[in-house]
Write a structure and sequence with these properties.
The complex is a heterodimer of chains A (about 425) and B (about 270). With about 425 residues, chain A is an alpha/beta fold. Chain A contains 13 helices and 20 strands. In chain A, the strands form four sheets. Chain A has a seven-stranded mixed beta sheet, with no helix packed on it. In chain A, strands 17-16-13-12-18-19-20 form a seven-stranded parallel beta sheet, sandwiched between helices. Chain A is elongated and about 85 Å long. The two termini of chain A are about 45 Å apart. Chain B has about 270 residues and is α/β, with parallel strands linked by helices. In chain B, strands 2-1-15 form a three-stranded mixed beta sheet, covered by helices on one side. Classes of the chains: A alpha/beta (about 425), B alpha/beta (about 270).
Chain lengths: ~425, ~270
């Protein structure tokens, strides 16, 4: 998947002589691309300047041709070394100089060969298998004594995302988050993508799952029906949430309230604050959400749709949870691992109205997955956009409006 | 007084072909070559008032006569050339010995870095220009920059007929430049334009460029240039230079003229 690349070094009076410009122009004219790294401009007239240039080309052959063309202008290929690794000193502990990952596609060099690191995710280590042929990311907490962990920075290549070929909202490689941005064209683009992904999913193609990570505001704000429809019509294949979204969704089904407020009347009802507790208790008595749906206790809403459509749910608990509901993972490391295991195959992530689950999910996603973050609080999409992903779109708007418009765009007629 | 290193053309001939001018079939007339060389020396010594240091010629090294390629001399330091072609690499030891015998501090670059001396490195007081791609390696310039504490602007030589910078680029005293624009690409021309104002750039016409009009020797306001370059001569005279025209066509058979036959010392 990664194009061929090589790092070259250029030194001398390369600025005033336009040698740097000539080298960069040559790369582009021949069909390659480049990244300028570590440019140091000489500060006095006789001091030379230096530039390290990562040259990329769609094929190894073209890369070789480009390198051959720029070599006479002084662009010398840097000698690449194998990456270094050390055994983990103890369970759950990386070697001191461990390499920390980004969420970008990464390769490491093992015995002269560039090997793709599997399971790209930010803030992890890289574990090399004993045959030194494969590498995958590994969370700090799950490392076992003696695991070979990549250290230092030599022999590691991180590839920035290429501009996506599709000319929709994800293709602009911008991460501007603004409440003034018109929502409709963005949502229309998301809908088009979801239509395509549903088709792909039905064809069994890779990276066709749509993940929704959401908070209870979806229910409070009135987005329950729209989301239920999206799940029932096969637009969503994976749900990450906490105790609250599930509890209030089922509370709405059983009592017509969300956190005690009548969803239709919009008023608090007598003893309404107990409804979610009674809901949780009822499900605990039944044993599982799945059983509550199958036995006809829960008949409508998000949870019912997920169970009926066999949409995988990962529910991660927090310290303020009531209950919690059966199925909620209260060990956060276990919850993180359960979410991580579901990430492969995701082709689009919708992070809606939950700071906690949006950020947690964002951290688990490789940069290659287009991501939409919707929140009334601009801080959440901004924080996500700051991860540097080119394919993250932030929308400052309320969850229900987003889900309703998205569903309508896809054919929902309430 | 300006001093130049020269080498009599006793063994000068076309033994091999390493540039588009050289044709073994187009042999040198030794007597004519000797006469032209003697005339050039006479002009330099008697008309220009330069001092000449003659190094002994060596049988089997026909191009030793082109002393501009011996190396680069700055003060009492001499950096000896590393030639690209094996045919001329055999000259290196002789030039090095001459520098040592004259008491110069001799410097060399890494063996893998081709650098053909003052033929490819010319300039003004602070800024030098380095020709590359035909003979010298661009990577030599940052090293030279470090050694001599000068800014060196590399210029790619894009026409194989103008294989050394001194065949198409000639800095003159008072900051003027005599040059052949077509020997450089747009980047090189832009770099030259950035350093030398338009009114100081004297562009040699194409037909005189191929008669080595740029391969001139400038000492103060005196310029020694190859014969048959009337337009260039006029350009120079109009700028206040006093020109001396010398017939050097025997040496042009090998791709060199006045500048190639001399190496500025001091």
């Amino acid at each position: 998947m990664t194009a061929s690349q090589e790092t070259v070094f250029l030194q001398g009076h390369i600025i005033d002589s336009l040698i740097l410009a000539k080298v960069l122009d040559t790369i582009l004219m021949m069909g390659g691309t480049f990244d300028l790294q570590d440019v140091a401009i000489g500060t006095t007239r006789d001091a030379t300047s230096q530039a390290r240039i990562v040259v990329r080309a769609p094929s190894g052959r073209l890369l070789a041709e480009i390198l051959q063309a720029i070599q006479p202008h002084g662009a010398a290929v840097e000698r690449e070394a194998d990456c270094r690794f050390e055994p983990a000193p103890a369970a759950g502990v990386f070697p001191e100089q461990f390499y920390a990952t980004t969420h970008l596609p990464t390769q490491i060099r093992l015995d002269g060969e560039w090997v793709e690191v599997e399971g790209m995710e930010m803030d992890l280590g890289i574990c090399v298998d004993s045959a030194k042929a494969r590498a995958r990311t590994i969370p700090m907490g799950t490392v076992t004594t003696g695991d070979l962990i990549v250290i230092g920075r030599e022999g590691i290549r991180v590839t920035p995302l290429a501009r996506p070929t599709e000319r929709d909202v994800f293709g602009f490689m911008e991460s501007v988050v603004s409440s003034e941005r018109p929502h409709h064209p963005v949502i229309a683009d998301i809908a088009r993508r979801m239509q395509k992904l549903r088709e792909w999913y039905r064809q069994g193609r890779a990276e066709s799952k749509v993940l929704l990570a959401g908070g209870p505001a979806i229910v409070h704000a009135g987005g329950r029906e729209a989301l239920t429809w999206l799940i029932e019509t096969g637009y969503i294949q994976l749900l990450f949430c906490g105790n609250a979204l599930a509890a209030h969704d089922m509370e709405a089904g059983l009592y017509g309230t969300s956190l005690g407020y009548g969803l239709t009347a919009g008023r608090s009802v007598p003893h309404g604050h107990e409804h979610h507790l009674r809901t949780i208790n009822r499900i605990r008595a039944i044993g599982s959400i799945q059983e509550a749906v199958r036995s006809g206790v829960i008949t409508d809403g998000i949870m019912a749709a997920c169970v009926r459509r066999e949409v995988k749910m990962v529910m991660a608990g927090t310290i303020r949870d009531d209950g919690p509901l059966p199925g909620v993972l209260t060990d956060s490391m276990m919850a993180q691992q359960a979410m991580r295991e579901e990430i492969p195959g995701v082709g689009l992530a919708l992070l809606v109205a939950s700071t906690l689950h949006a950020i947690a999910t964002g951290n688990l996603l490789p940069a290659t997955v287009p991501t939409v973050c919707v929140d009334v609080n601009p801080a959440v999409p901004t924080k996500l956009a700051d991860r540097g992903s080119f394919q993250a779109v932030g929308l400052v708007m309320d969850a229900a409006s987003f889900l309703k418009e998205l569903a309508r765009e896809l054919g929902w007629r309430p | 007084m300006s001093r130049f290193l020269v080498c009599p053309p006793d063994y000068f001939q076309i033994d091999y072909e390493i540039n588009p001018w050289m044709r073994r079939a187009n042999g040198v007339d030794p007597a004519r070559a000797a006469g032209q060389w003697q005339t050039l020396m006479k002009v330099l010594e008697q008309e220009v008032g330069a001092g000449l240091e003659r190094m002994p010629p060596v049988p089997g090294l026909p191009d030793l006569v082109f002393t501009a390629n011996a190396g680069l001399v700055v003060g009492r330091r001499a950096l000896v050339s590393r030639f690209r072609y094996p045919e001329r690499q055999r000259e290196e030891a002789h030039f090095e010995r001459w520098f040592r015998e004259q008491g110069y501090e001799v410097l060399t670059l890494d063996q893998s870095l081709y650098f053909e001396g003052a033929g490819d490195l010319l300039g003004f007081a602070d800024t030098w220009f380095g020709g590359y791609h035909q003979r010298s390696d661009i990577r030599a310039f940052p090293k030279l920059s470090e050694i001599f504490q000068r800014e060196i602007i590399p210029l790619e030589l894009i026409d194989s007929r103008f294989y050394h910078l001194d065949t198409c680029f000639c800095p003159l005293s008072s900051g003027d430049l005599l040059y052949l624009p077509s020997a450089f690409d747009s980047y090189g021309q832009a770099a030259i334009a950035q350093w030398i104002p338009e009114d100081r750039r004297l562009a040699v016409p194409e037909e005189e460029g191929v008669r080595f009009a740029c391969n001139a020797v400038c000492v103060g306001k005196q310029v020694v240039i190859p014969a048959d370059c009337p337009l260039t001569t006029k350009l120079l005279e109009d700028r206040g230079y006093h020109t001396h025209s010398v017939q050097l066509d025997e040496f042009m058979k090998s791709g060199g003229a006045a500048k190639c036959l001399t190496l500025a010392l001091d």
